[in-house]
Design a protein that fits this description.
InterPro entries: DUF2267 (IPR018727), DUF2267_sf (IPR038282). The chain is an all-alpha fold. The chain has helices at 2-14, 18-35, 38-45, 69-80, 84-102, 104-111, 116-121. Helix 5 crosses helix 6.
């Protein structure tokens, strides 16, 4: 049930249908798990719905796969089957939702392992009045 709420929140934040939100969530969490340490991925997995945990699993790999922002977005786009701009928007929606689910401390520890450009995806875009 918590999994469905996660997808609903991603769909609302990214302005996409539920099935696209699911694809973007799966792609973003898998890519994030590759980019952060295995221990940090496991910490995040402890705070998400049971159904989402395998997406953050890293088969006993402790060292992160180091890649930059462009590669992060490319991997999300490829896995989700969407274009780069939607992958970027969707990854931001997933990270913002993840932040609220896992809590500030755990989220910030994970974000500290990422380049500034990827961290910026997690920042909400101010809405124009």
């Amino acid at each position: 049930m918590a999994e469905l709420k996660f997808f609903d929140k991603v769909a609302a934040r990214a302005g996409v249908p539920d099935d696209t939100a699911r694809s973007l969530t799966e792609a973003t969490l898998r890519t994030l798990a590759e980019r952060i340490s295995g221990g940090q991925a496991a910490e995040l997995a402890d705070h998400v719905a049971h159904e989402l945990r395998p997406l953050l699993a890293r088969a006993d790999v402790e060292e992160p796969d180091v890649f930059a922002y462009d590669e992060f977005v490319r991997r999300v786009a490829e896995r989700a089957g969407v274009g780069p701009s939607l992958a970027e928007r969707g990854a931001g929606a997933v990270l913002q939702t993840l932040h609220r689910v896992v809590g500030h401390r755990e989220f910030e520890q994970a974000m500290a392992q990422l380049p500034t450009e990827i961290q910026a995806l997690a920042q909400p875009v101010p809405q124009n009045p």
